Amino acid sequence: MLRFVRVNGFSLLASSKKLVEPTEIYNPIFPNYNPNHFISRKNSLRSLCNFITPKNCDQNCEVMNQEEEFIIPKHVALALDGSRTWHKKHGLDLDYKPFYQGFMRFIEYCLKWKVSSATFYVYGLRNFKKRSKEEVDLFLDQLETVLEEELEYFTRKGVRVLAVGEKYMLPKSLQATIKKVEEATKDNAKLDLVLPICYTSQSDIVQATRKICHKVKEGSITLEDVNEDLIQQHLAVLGSRPIPDLFIRTGGQLRVGMLLGWQIANVHLHITNTCAPDFGKDVFLDALRSYQKRDTTFGR
């Protein structure tokens, strides 16, 4: 509200102390419009377009034809936990087919929401020591079946598959199947899919350190060349890929596990009580919603 005031004999227009209440009317350009605030430069049309569409979308800023729009993480990691709990709860014998169905749904969601890199934690190195031989054999047999049956899908959808970890511990037939799938999909570019198997983040860091030490010893690099970027390039899960932005873990256990070690500092964690066989679109979308609210200051 404006009113006239007298200052040193002059009449001036001044604003009253009363502020205008923010409106709740939906505005498609500035949804949270508040008349008490100036419109900042960051609220340009381009910035708004970046907000309502994936950050890694085409430069024409085309809006995805999806139920919801998200800022899409470049690299999503998933650890599907809770298979044993789920089967025990339902009085069923342990079977990893539901686990691998969740694995295929994860790939489908990453393709649908245009995630460029994905890591799916297949099997930890310690599980080979903790689980019975019958259980390990069942898991690996079904993994081999899935890779064989879904190779055509990977090829058709443009999924590049790379398995990392202590693969020499796997049965020879599974090693051959993995090699065949990797070779057949090596030129695919829509989704870079990493499958850690017989893997721990500690062993990954150890092997990266050994490779770097060998290069220093042979003289191809010097000690001064060793830095964070060089170490990251030698990690099997990373290499030239971006560090995971979002890590989803099912099963409800409040721990990261053995997938991320080097990469954990800046990753956004989404832990859900949903067990592996029940992993679906709702869980994935909840993780994306959670990612929108992430704090990117990293303690600054």
From TrEMBL:
Q: Name one Pfam family in it.
A: Prenyltransf
Q: Specify whether Lipoprotein is a keyword of the entry.
A: no
Instruction: Provide the alphabetized UniProt keywords.
Output: Transferase
Name a biological process GO annotation: polyprenol biosynthetic process
Per the record, its GO cellular-component terms are:
chloroplast stroma
Highest taxon of the lineage = Eukaryota
Stored NCBIfam families: uppS
Can you name this protein?
Answer: Alkyl transferase
